[in-house]
Each structure stands twice: as structure tokens, then as C-alpha cells.
Amino acid sequence: MTGEVSLFGVYVPGLLLLAVAAAVLAALVSRLFALIGLYRIFAYRPLVDVAVYILILGGLVLAFAPPGVAL
Predict the structure, then answer these.
(1) Is 49 part of any domain?
(2) Structural domains of the chain, count
(3) Would 70 be classed as within a structural domain?
(4) CA nearest 20: which of 36, 5, 39?
(5) pTM of the model
(6) DSSP 25-52
(7) Where does the chain cross the membrane (predicted)?
(8) Confidence class for position 70, pLDDT limits 50, 70, 90
(9) pLDDT in tens, 15-38
């Protein structure tokens, strides 16, 4: 496995696709946090946003890892 995905003949790194998906999901989670008022308990909202993005990206990487890869 090369770790790349062919999109219309252009090879794109798989991690780039996961990073874009994580950014979209993090934006949705951020909007949900703002909607329910969860940001009121945090002192620094951008730090929470970065942490949520990293957690989502890590989860996606683990979810899409090929079987047999050591964690």
C-alpha cells in the first residue's frame, strides 16, 4: 500500500484527505459547542478548537488504519 489515493488521476496523500475531513468535522463540533453553550466553561476557545481537531484527526487515522498495523 502506498498511502495515496487517486482522484481523477491525481495522487493525493491519504493523510491530507483525513485532515480535510477532520477540519470539516471539527467545524461542526465547534458549532455544536457554541450552540449548547459549552464554550462558556473554557478560558481560551482557540485552544479547545485545536484540541478537538487533533482528537478527531487521531480518531480518523486510527479508524482508517489498515488491519495489522501496530498502534
Answers:
(1) yes
(2) 1
(3) no
(4) 5
(5) 0.85
(6) HHHHHHHHHHHHTGGGG-S-HHHHHHHH
(7) 15-38, 50-69
(8) low
(9) 999 999 999 999 999 999 999 999
